[in-house]
Automatic annotation (TrEMBL):
GO cellular component: plasma membrane
UniProt key word Protein biosynthesis: no
Domain WSC: 9-120, 145-241
Name of the molecule in the record: 553_t:CDS:1
Highest rank taxon of the organism: Eukaryota
Organism: Ambispora gerdemannii
Location of the protein in the cell: Membrane
Record keywords, A-Z: Glycoprotein, Membrane, Signal, Transmembrane, Transmembrane helix
Length: 274
């Protein structure tokens, strides 16, 4: 168990009042994504809690390549590309006085006010550079890798895959994580937040898996932005190939077939040994 590694908090642009018309980017996709976006998980006592804070919203909007992220009503996250300064009134920051559901030390907008952030300097935005948003949406919605088990929730403190201390690499890919878990004899590999790798032998709790919507596994892999490596508090889980087959070696065996035209004929056979 331990905290999920996060980016440092970013300064907000300002507090704005207005309607959601310039911040409804998540609803513009087909099929539409959750708008507003929320991040709920089960707490230690089994009740549902919201983990929403500025970094959570910024990460999500950056994953979908939006320029702006905005928080409203403590736990609502909106995304958009249009400059909010054109359409919105700018009240005093005191209007954005709702405590963040996921961090009581920060504010997340107000009842009718948005606290707006730029996503451009966020690491998640850089992970997804040089990839078309339509291609990324396809990657998020469809994963044809036979090893892929799905998108699953990760807890705010205790990991779903808790077999190892997370590996954090600046060049993480799906195969990198699978190889790490394979070398440590684990059955499953999980990628989170674009660059974290977790291993374990079970991703269920009391036999039940806590699945997450595909849209929450939306972060491009640091080492290959044509792959998805989970998301904030969300794991892309893969089955690790059987150790006996992946760790075995090939032995070349030669068999003499005979002599043809004065030339010795050999048949070479590759045999897998463990």
């Amino acid at each position: 168990c331990g905290p999920i590694l996060r980016d440092p908090p970013l300064d907000s642009r300002k507090c704005f009042e207005g309607v959601e018309q310039t911040l409804n980017g998540l609803a513009s996709f087909s099929p539409t994504l959750s708008n507003p976006f929320s991040m709920n998980r089960k707490g230690e006592n089994g009740t549902t809690i919201s983990l929403m804070d500025p970094e959570m919203c910024i990460d999500h909007c950056a994953d979908y390549l939006f320029a702006y992220a905005a928080l409203k009503n403590s736990a609502e996250c909106y995304c958009g590309n249009d400059s909010v300064t054109v359409y919105y009134n700018n009240p005093s920051n005191g209007t954005c006085n709702s405590t963040c559901a996921g961090n009581p030390n920060l504010t997340c907008g107000g009842e009718n006010a948005f606290k707006v952030y730029s996503t451009i300097t966020n690491s998640h935005y850089s992970y997804g550079q040089n990839i078309n948003i339509n291609k990324k949406l396809e990657l998020i919605s469809k994963n044809s890798d036979p090893r892929y088990q799905g998108c699953f929730q990760d807890g705010p403190s205790c990991r779903t895959l808790n077999g190892t201390t997370p590996q954090v690499e600046n060049s993480m890919t799906i195969d990198d994580c699978i190889n790490i878990c394979n070398q440590n004899s684990f059955k499953y590999a999980g990628l989170e937040d674009g660059h974290q790798c977790f291993c374990g032998n079970d991703y269920t709790v009391n036999g039940q898996a806590s699945g997450a919507p595909n849209e929450q596994c939306s972060t491009s892999c640091v080492g290959n932005n044509s792959q998805i490596c989970g998301g904030p508090f969300a794991l892309s889980i893969y089955k690790v190939p059987n150790n006996s087959s992946t760790n075995s070696t090939l032995k070349i065996v030669g068999v003499v077939l005979g002599v043809l035209g004065g030339v010795l004929v050999l048949l070479f056979i590759a045999r897998r040994i463990t």
